[in-house]
Amino acid sequence: MESISYAYGTNHFDNDRELQAVLRHFWPASQEQWPRLQEFGAWAGRDVYEACYHIDHDAPPVLVAHDLDGHRIDRVRLSPSERSVLSQSAWIASPPYQHQGWPFHYALLYLLGDPGIGCILTITGQTAYALHKYGDDSIPGKDAIISHLLSGAAWGATWMTESQGGSDLGANETRATFDGEVWRLFGDKYFASGAGLTDYAITTARPDGSQPGPKGLGLYLLPRLTRQGTLNFQVRRLKDKSATRAVPSGEVELNGSEAYLIGQANHGIYYTLENLTVSRLANAVVAMATGKKAHFEVLERVARRHSFGATLQNHPLIRRDLTDFAVRSAGGLALAFYGVQKFDAAWTDRPPYTDRYHAARFVTHLAKNRTAEHAAAMTAMGMELFGGLGFLEEYAVSRWHREALITPIWEGPSNIQALDFLETVTRHHAHQAVLEELHAYLTHAGTHAAHLAQETLDNSLHHLQAMSGREAQWHAKNDLRAIADATQVALLYDMAEDQGERYAKLADLYATKFLEHQEYPFWADTDQDIWGGVVDE
C-alpha cells in the first residue's frame, strides 16, 4: 500500500487537526477518550485502509445461494480482511448505550472513514437503536439481540426502500398480516443494504386495514431465520455498484416472512424517521471523512511533486485549492458535529417530540445535504491535483471520489432533505432556537462576514416562510444550502473563541466563497496555517 497511497500507515487521528479541534469544541469531554481515539486512528490508517482497498478492488462480498446440501441460504461470503475489520470495529456502536455519548460513536465512525464498512456499522446500530428505544418484551430475546448487534455477533439492517416509491415511504406496498402469533410480511425491498449479511433487519410494512400514506406504516423486526430455523426471506440478487462495495446491497423478497412489531403500529413512520436522523448524521460525518482522506493524499502529493521549477504547493493556484480543502473541511465537520451535539441532547425524546428534537432534525438536514456536496467537491479536486494518476483505479485517490458520490443519495437525496427541512421550519418552527444561538455567535464576532451570515439566515428563513405549497418547495433546496453555509460561518466564529484565530479566518474565507460567491482573497496565499503543508522555499 505504501506505493499507491501517501496516507496509508499514518495515524488518522493525530494527523487530523480539524477533528481534534471540533471534538474539543463540541464534545469537551472528548479528551478523556483521546488515547482510544489515537489507537483507533492508527488502526484506521493502516489495517482499515489496506483492507478496504483490497475489498473494493479484489474481494467484494459474493452471494452464496445454496449450501452443500442444496438448502437455500442466501448468505454472502466475505473476505477474511472484511470479516476482521468488521469484528474489530463493531464496538463503535456501543458508546451511546454505555453513557459515553453519540459524539464518541460518530468520532470513531469518522476515523474509520470508509462509507461501505461504515454503512454496515450504521445500519447495525440503527437496528439496535430501534429495539433499545421502542422494542418491548413481545419481541423474543430482544435484549440478547441488542447485545449481539452491539458486539459484532450479529449484523443489522434498515430495509425501507421499495422500487415503486424510492424515497417516498408513503408509497410502500409491503403488507403485514398478524397470524395470531407473529406478523407475516409480503412484499419486496429493492435497495436492501446488508443483504446476505444481515441477521436482523428493521423494515417498514403496512398492517392490514391501516391508512394509506406514511402514517399507515408500522416498523417491524425481521429475523433472518424463522422460529424453526429456516430462511425467513430470500435475496434475489446483489447490486453491481460503482463504490461502497464492502456493503452488500441487494433485493429482498418477503413471502410471508415472520416479523415482530416494534412499538406502536401507528408510530412506525416516526420511528423510521428517527432512524433516518441517526444515519443522516452518519452520512454527514462519513462524507467529511471521505473528503479528508482525499485531503491527506493531496497534502503529501503537492509537497513531493514539482512542476515549472517549483514544488506544487508553492504555486498560487495550488495554495488556492488547498485553501478550498481547508475551508470545506473545517466548515463541514463543524456542521456535522453541531448536528451530533444537538442529537445527543435530544435522542431520548419520543413522539410527540420536544422542540429540542425538532431542532436536532433541522440541523441534521443542513448537515447531511451540505457535507455531501463538500465531499464530492473535495474528492473531485483531489483527483484533479493528482493529474492522470488521480484517474487510475490502482491508486488510492480515485476511490475516494467514487465513494463520496453516494453520500448525496444515501438516506434521502437533496430534494428529500429540502422537503423534510422545509417541514421542520413551516410546521415545527424548529429553526427558532437554532437561529437565536447562531445569531449570538455572529453578533459576538461582529465582522462584515458575520453580518452577512446573519442577513443570509434571516432572509432565507423569511423567504421560506413567506411562501407556501409548490413555490416554497421550488426554493427550499437553495435556501437550505444558504442557511447551511451561514450556519457554518457562525460555527467557525464560535470555534475561534476556544480553538484560536485560525477559525475566525476560516469563517471569513467561507463567507467570501459561499455567501458572497467571490474568489478566496489572495492573503491566504501566504498564510500557511490556513492551507497547510510545509514550505520548502
TrEMBL record:
Ranges for domain Adaptive response protein AidB N-terminal: 9-131
Keyword Flavoprotein included in the entry's annotation: yes
Limits of the Acyl-CoA dehydrogenase/oxidase C-terminal domain: 266-420
Highest taxon of the lineage: Bacteria
The entry's keywords: FAD, Flavoprotein, Oxidoreductase
Pfam family, one: AidB_N
Membrane-spanning residues: none
Domain named Acyl-CoA oxidase/dehydrogenase middle: residues: 157-255
PROSITE patterns linked to this entry: ACYL_COA_DH_2 (PS00073)
Keyword Flavoprotein among UniProt keywords: yes
Cofactor(s) the record lists: FAD
Assigned protein family: Belongs to the acyl-CoA dehydrogenase family.
Protein name as it appears in the record: Acyl-CoA dehydrogenase
